[in-house]
Automatic annotation (TrEMBL):
The keyword Transferase applies. D-ribose 5-phosphate binds at residues 196, 220, 224-228. The gene is prs. Homohexamer. It catalyses: D-ribose 5-phosphate + ATP = 5-phospho-alpha-D-ribose 1-diphosphate + AMP + H(+). It is an enzyme of class 2 (transferase). GO terms for molecular function: ATP binding; kinase activity; magnesium ion binding; ribose phosphate diphosphokinase activity. The active site is at 194. PANTHER family: RIBOSE-PHOSPHATE DIPHOSPHOKINASE FAMILY MEMBER, RIBOSE-PHOSPHATE PYROPHOSPHOKINASE 1, CHLOROPLASTIC. Binds 2 Mg(2+) ions per subunit. This is Ribose-phosphate pyrophosphokinase. It is found in: Cytoplasm. Its EC number is 2.7.6.1.
Length: 317
């Protein structure tokens, strides 16, 4: 039996549609929460239900506007803590600042660690996230962290793609992820040898692996400005790929990303709803959104009932 009281789910303004979908899978309704902004820009948070002794899950990705959504999350956690919540789990499908996970030059912060400190100090008991950019971020917390893998929902759709499939990593760092997907799909693996000259700008160099006359799926954990992804698609086409798909868990889509993807050679761009898809991207017609709501709902159920969460992990190397 659960030890932490009644299960309740609340959400901020970052991705309420995902929170509603999670509740639908669990057969429950969202607990009312008022989240608004005062005229001077300060955030106002008020939890509408009595949560004393309850097991509360706060659904709030820290996507753009990152600082606003992060502050919202911390204020909701603090409100719950001061309302004598039994246990509170932060459900952060997209963890902002995850790419700043180490010092690469002198005199810079390790922002991912600082964000972990913010969230922990605000009163969270546990963190639930999806496809962390760097797995070692779990070690920045002194509380349990469950990092789910979107492969569980993405692979079901990818298996419907017809043709001789090859899974492509856009850089050497993503090889492990691409290999796991390729193994599950029974597909070949290829890697783009890439040279990055400046931040958010990438120059693809050559393809390692056979892609000629194959259906190539370029796989990454996120699409930010889309420079890496679009360049990878171009190089694959130049090397004889029959069709090219893009696949990523988090559709960050900042700056020129949507315009680049509109003009790209991708037949389809497969993403999840960890981040709400921008309206301009929806109108583009190239995007296919796969929901992670069922995966997160299962994890919430297992956490609440003290069951294993690791059974939901997909980590085949």
């Amino acid at each position: 039996m659960p030890r932490h009281g009644e299960l309740k789910i609340i959400t901020g303004t970052a991705n309420p549609a995902l929170a509603e979908a999670i509740c639908n899978h669990l057969g429950m309704t969202l607990s009312p929460t008022l989240v608004s902004t005062f005229s001077d820009g300060e955030i106002r948070v008020e939890v509408g239900d009595n949560v004393r002794g309850d097991d509360v899950f706060v659904v709030q990705p820290t996507c753009a506007p990152v600082n606003h959504n992060l502050m919202e999350l911390c204020l909701m956690l603090d409100a719950l803590k001061r309302a004598s919540v039994g246990r509170v789990t932060a459900v952060v499908p997209y963890y902002g600042y995850a790419r700043q996970d180490r010092k690469v030059v002198p005199r810079v912060p390790i922002s991912a660690k600082l964000v972990a400190d913010f969230i922990t100090t605000a009163g969270v008991s546990r963190l639930l996230t999806v496809d962390l950019h760097a797995g070692q971020i779990q070690g920045f917390f002194n509380i349990p962290v469950d990092n789910l893998y979107a492969a569980e929902v993405l692979l079901d759709y990818m298996k419907s793609i017809e043709g001789d499939v090859v899974v492509v990593s856009p850089d050497a760092g993503g090889t492990e992820r691409a290999r796991a997907y390729a193994k599950r799909l029974g597909a070949e693996l290829a890697i783009i040898d890439k040279r990055r000259d400046t931040p958010n700008k990438a120059q693809a160099m050559r393809v390692i692996g056979e892609v000629k006359d194959k259906v190539a799926i370029v796989l990454d954990d996120m699409i930010d400005t889309a420079g890496t992804m679009v360049e990878a698609g171009r190089v694959l086409k130049e090397n004889g790929a029959k069709e090219v798909y893009a696949c990523a868990t988090h559709p960050v889509l900042s700056g020129p990303a949507i315009e680049r993807l509109k003009k790209s050679c991708f037949k389809e761009i497969i993403v999840t709803d960890t981040i709400p898809l921008k309206e301009e991207a929806e109108k583009c017609g190239k995007f296919k959104v796969i929901s992670v709501a069922s995966l997160i709902a299962k994890a919430i159920h297992n956490i609440h009932t003290e069951s294993s969460v690791s059974v939901l992990f997909s980590r085949i190397k």
